[in-house]
Amino acid sequence: MAEILSKLKDCIAITNGKVEVKDSAAVKDLIDELIYEAVFAADEEQRKSLQRLVIEIARKMGAVPCSIQSLYEEMGRNYPGFSVPAINIRGLTYNVAQVIFKKAIEKNAGAFIFEIARSEIGYTKQRPIEYSAVVLAAAVKQGFTGPVFIQGDHFQLVRKYYLDNPKPETEYIKGLIKEAIEADFYNIDIDSSTLVDLEKPTLKEQQRPNFEVAARLTEFIRELQPEGVEVSVGGEIGEIGGKNSTPEELRAYLDGFKEVFKGDKGLSKLSVQSGTSHGGVVLPDGSLASVKIDFETLRAMSDLARKEYGLSGAVQHGASTLPDEAFHMFPETGASEVHLATGFQNIIYDSPALPDGFRQEVYKYINESFAKEKKEGQTDEQFIYKTRKKGFGELKQKWWDLAADVKAPIMKELEDKFELLFEKLKVVGSKALVDKFVKPFVVEKQVDIILK
Fold first, then answer.
1. Residues 6+ apart with CB under 8 A from 352
2. d(CA 191, CA 193)
3. Fewest Cβ atoms closer than 10 Å to its Cβ: which of 184, 228, 327, 418?
4. Average pLDDT over residues 25-33
5. 50, 149, 264, 309, 393 from 130: Cα distances, Å
6. What pLDDT, in 10s, does the model give residues 96-121?
7. What is the rounded CA–CA span in Å between residue 58 and residue 64?
8. pLDDT confidence of 401, banded at 50, 70, 90?
């Protein structure tokens, strides 16, 4: 740490906890070393201090964490014809984020989101402030400027924990929301769809636990959000992987939310179920089953959410493993946001460039550490496919330390995928609209590092 701070003192200044960048080019040259130390320093407090320093440097260099709220309000009034990709990065985060920013600069794209879910924060060992720092370090490295949307995905209440005792489960989610907002996550998706009670006689009563919890947590977010920032909040009505959502369920949820919520601005979007499942459905040989999305459901739900409730539209989860030819349908059916995760993980794991010895080392760790999670009747291939997402966290430094000539062809595969997604989802050229409606509000924070 002393070595990297010694190098930094020639290109940045810290006065009364405020950062000033004196030499942007020199910072870009040092950012690789700085973010590595910020993620892997032995002392936790040092890591957090360095992560905050990275975020503030990025802010000063024009990559500003923002809420997508105002853009989504415009989408509620006038749908612009694109669906915003929301990208979960589980491993090689610094490299993958650089690829995304590089492609965004090439394609003049501004409407894209970096996100991480409650579960991913755990098994990838990326706390919110680390995730923000790594993403923003990538922006610095690539020279990206403008709004950067960082999102808490599936801040989900676990049904069995909530039913056992709602208070500790609710308090856990509140703690995670607080941590995320402090880490410059100004976009948060509340998933209380797990609490829907299908035994109730009416749709409204079935959705009541869902919309009541979502409303209370949205109020909590509004209390915590920094002055000048309106956090974008998403709700969810359909448990992903379950039955398809209906317009009647949407109305029951949103009408109930409006009755309960006390505040000026509620939700900006709503996640629905239209036929996908997270990670896809894996067959016994480890391949993926083909998925049929009910795009007419998605169209109807987006139209309804937009026209009757002023939301940006419906959100599609679990889409990254769909065939490439399906993605153009999301903007055509008016989806405002599409969540993408496992497909990128699959590219990394299945790339011919990944040394097989390292791949087998990861699989050995998974088999030894998570054997109890293997379900009866599940083949070895199915188990590895469903569980290999957990091979990133404990082995994070080994992934990060892979040789450049190993990572480069993997990143090229990902770059081609992001180019396809940006084009199919029609966010190419979206920077102009983002810049028009999203005005970065700088929430400057103190850095507790002294340069010597």
1. 409
2. 5
3. 228
4. 97
5. 9, 15, 31, 35, 13
6. 999 999 999 999 999 999 999 999 99
7. 7
8. very high
- Locus of tokens 């991480």: 116
Question: Which amino acid is present at 339?
Answer: H
Q: Tell me the one-letter amino acid at 263.
A: G
What is the rounded CA–CA span in Å between residue 89 and residue 115?
7
In this structure, what are the phi and psi dihedrals at residue 212, rounded to the nearest 5 degrees? -70, -45
pLDDT at 241 over 50: no
Q: How confident is the model at residue 292 (pLDDT cuts 50, 70, 90)?
A: low
Where residue 282 falls (left for φ over 0; alpha for ψ -120 to 50; beta otherwise) is beta
181: enclosing H helix or E strand:
helix 166-182
CA angle at residue 270 from 269 to 275, to 5 degrees? 135
| Torsion (CA) 277, 278, 283, 286 in degrees, nearest 10 | 160
Evaluate if pTM is beyond 0.70. Answer: yes
Question: What is the secondary structure of 152-166 as a DSSP string?
Answer: EEEEEPPHHHHHH-H
Length of the chain measured in residues: 452
- Per the CB < 8 A criterion, the answer to whether 102 and 118 are in contact is no
CATH class of domain segment(s) 66-347+405-437: alpha beta
Between CA 393 and CA 52 the distance in angstroms is 21
Task: Look up residue 431 and give its amino acid.
Answer: K
pLDDT average, residue stretch 336-341: 94
- Tell me the average pLDDT across 387-395: 97
Helix (H) or strand (E) holding 405: helix 404-424
pLDDT digits (tens, 9 = 90+) for 265-274: 999 999 998 7
Task: State yes or no: pLDDT of 278 exceeds 50.
Answer: no
Residue 151, both tokens: 């999102």
Share of the chain above pLDDT 70, in %: 95
Closest-CA residue to 363 (of 397, 389, 400) = 389
CB 130 within 8 A of CB 120: no
Residue 129 structure tokens: 């402030």
Enter the tokens of residue 265.
């601005």
Alpha-carbon span 399 to 93, nearest angstrom = 10
Rounded to a whole number of angstroms, the distance between the first and last alpha carbons of the chain is: 11
Q: Which of 419, 413, 416 is nearest to 107 (CA)?
A: 419
The span from the CA of 71 to the CA of 67, in Å, is 9
Contact 38, 50 (CB under 8 A): yes
Per DSSP, the three-state class of 28 is helix
For the chain, give every domain's residue range: 2-60, 66-347+405-437
